[in-house]
């Protein structure tokens, strides 16, 4: 007689063994559907709602649940970690791109425009960060998703190009991204039972919102981005993730746990729309928008593959992954 508690096909276990697999596998599957059968999920009702349109509400739920896990004891480390991620992933790279633009102009370098650089480099995939830190990180790392809420989309691109008159900085949009987290922090600190109830949320929602995000990635755009987009994606993880790694090691003094910083070396899926947003604000960038969009799409997929692999490999090599898991279990029992 079969054991009712035993999986016939261990899908969840297999996905969990892949670095960032809870997000990466559904993301790739969704992108295959979005590329080869884009209309398959448009039949309406619950099918479309769950598998195509659910990304934003499920990410919002994850953000709220993450906030409930941030207690007064962990709040300081969360803000410090968030600052380090923003510094290494957005601020320093953005300033370097500004300096490069002063020398080469908007055309950029080696077929990659300044618009493409800003769009791909200065933001990070918050969902992937939550997936990787949920598997290998601590509560302070998961709470640092705030960096992804701040740098997601066109915010930093518009900020760094603001001197060119590229429209208003969307502070209201940034505030809207932070409100679910703030409410989660409040609820988690006044009611421990809610904090405990929402602890399993990441494993539940990450595969579903990852699939929905994937349906918006057309692999033909990744291909059209060509070698320049792929090379840019390959460089983003070690360079920007490396800056966050250095912040972890020398500013946060996380020692063997510092490689978790490489999980920030990604490009957000929402960044694909950034070139069009910038071009709408300043038509002088219109000539670069189409190529930049395809290059950014390539970066989204390449960094989603590379960042979790690099972070997990270095964490395991340092022996930090097992130590973090044991420490988190001990804290949960305390």
Automatic annotation (TrEMBL):
Keyword Iron-sulfur set for record: no
Family matches, as InterPro entries: 2keto-3dGluconate_permease
Keywords: Cell membrane, Membrane, Sugar transport, Symport, Transmembrane, Transmembrane helix, Transport
One Gene Ontology term of the molecular function aspect: 2-keto-3-deoxygluconate:proton symporter activity
UniProt keyword Transport, yes or no: yes
Ranges that cross the membrane: 21-40, 46-66, 78-103, 109-132, 144-163, 169-188, 200-217, 223-248, 260-281, 287-307
GO cellular component: membrane
Family the UniProt entry places it in: Belongs to the KdgT transporter family.
Protein name: 2-keto-3-deoxygluconate permease
Annotated organism of origin: Murinocardiopsis flavida
């Amino acid at each position: 007689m079969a054991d009712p508690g035993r999986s016939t096909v261990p899908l969840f276990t297999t996905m969990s063994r892949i670095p960032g697999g809870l997000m990466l596998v559904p993301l790739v599957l969704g992108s295959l559907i979005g590329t080869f059968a884009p209309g398959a999920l448009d039949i309406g009702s619950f099918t479309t709602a769950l598998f195509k349109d659910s990304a934003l509400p499920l990410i919002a739920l994850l953000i709220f649940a993450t906030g409930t896990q941030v207690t007064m004891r962990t709040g300081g480390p969360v803000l410090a970690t968030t600052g380090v991620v923003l510094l290494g992933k957005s601020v320093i790279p953005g300033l370097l791109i500004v300096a490069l633009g002063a020398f080469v102009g908007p055309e950029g370098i080696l077929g990659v425009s300044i618009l493409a650089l800003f769009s791909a480099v200065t933001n990070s995939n918050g969902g992937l960060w939550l997936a990787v830190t949920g598997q290998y990180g601590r509560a302070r790392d998961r709470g640092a998703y705030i960096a992804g809420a701040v740098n997601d989309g066109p915010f930093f691109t518009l900020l760094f190009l603001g001197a060119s008159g590229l429209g208003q900085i969307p502070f209201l949009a940034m505030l809207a991204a932070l409100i679910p987290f703030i409410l989660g922090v409040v609820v988690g600190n006044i009611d421990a039972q809610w904090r405990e109830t929402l602890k399993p949320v990441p494993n539940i929602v990450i595969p579903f919102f990852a699939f929905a995000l994937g349906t918006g990635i057309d692999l033909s755009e990744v291909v059209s981005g060509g070698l320049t987009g792929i090379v840019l994606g390959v460089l983003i993880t070690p360079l920007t993730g490396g800056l966050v790694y250095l912040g972890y090691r020398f500013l946060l003094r996380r020692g063997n746990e510092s490689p978790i910083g490489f999980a920030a070396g990604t490009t957000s899926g929402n960044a694909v729309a950034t070139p069009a947003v910038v071009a709408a604000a300043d038509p002088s960038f219109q000539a670069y928008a189409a190529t930049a969009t395809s290059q950014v799409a390539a970066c989204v997929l390449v960094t989603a593959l590379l960042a979790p692999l690099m972070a997990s490999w270095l964490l395991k090599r340092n022996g930090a992954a097992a130590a973090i898991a044991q420490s988190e279990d001990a804290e949960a029992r305390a």
